[in-house]
Design brief:
This protein is α+β, with helices and mostly antiparallel strands. It has a domain at 38-76 and 90-134: Aldehyde Oxidoreductase, domain 3 (Alpha-Beta Complex). 20% of the residues lie in helices and 28% in strands. The protein has a 4-stranded antiparallel β-sheet with strand order 3-6-1-7, covered by helices on one side. A 3-stranded antiparallel β-sheet has the order 2-5-4. The longest helix has 14 residues, at 45-58.
Length: 136
């Protein structure tokens, strides 16, 4: 699974709502087809890996796939049945902050129909609404 090798701060504050739209990483840069987010969400490293597997299995390891998001935000979790207090919990997993318009995945080297179906399968694994886009 994806996770940073090293982080500046081990535990960070979660923050509030994800506001605004993506101004960077919102266009197709590498491939011919892409999967673009329509909503805001925190996408976990597990969801990214599940999407990647679904796509690569469908295209039978053909073509090239780019993952355009990276889970670099640590999320903490306290143990089950732990009383209140005693500080912040340990880091449990990492998430990527996704704004509306962010390009999640890109693909090249396959036909349009195959790419669209692969992206559809990948979208099922994510907790954000997406749409299939093509390079002009």
């Amino acid at each position: 699974m994806l996770m940073p090798k090293k982080v500046k701060h081990r535990k960070i504050q979660r923050g509030g709502k994800i506001r605004g739209t993506a101004h960077r990483g919102n266009e197709i840069s590498f491939g011919s087809f892409g999967l673009k987010s329509m909503g805001a969400s925190l996408v976990t490293a597990r969801q990214i890996e599940a999407s990647r597997r679904a796509m690569t299995r469908y295209v039978q390891r053909g073509g090239k796939i780019w993952i355009r998001i990276f889970p670099d935000k640590p999320m903490t979790k306290k143990g089950d049945e732990t009383p209140m207090g005693k500080g912040k919990g340990a880091v449990d997993h990492f998430v990527a902050v996704v704004k509306p318009g962010t390009m999640l995945f890109e693909m090249d080297g396959v036909k349009r129909e195959i790419a669209k179906e692969a992206m559809r399968l990948a979208a099922y694994k994510l907790n954000v609404k997406t749409k299939f886009v093509e390079k002009e």
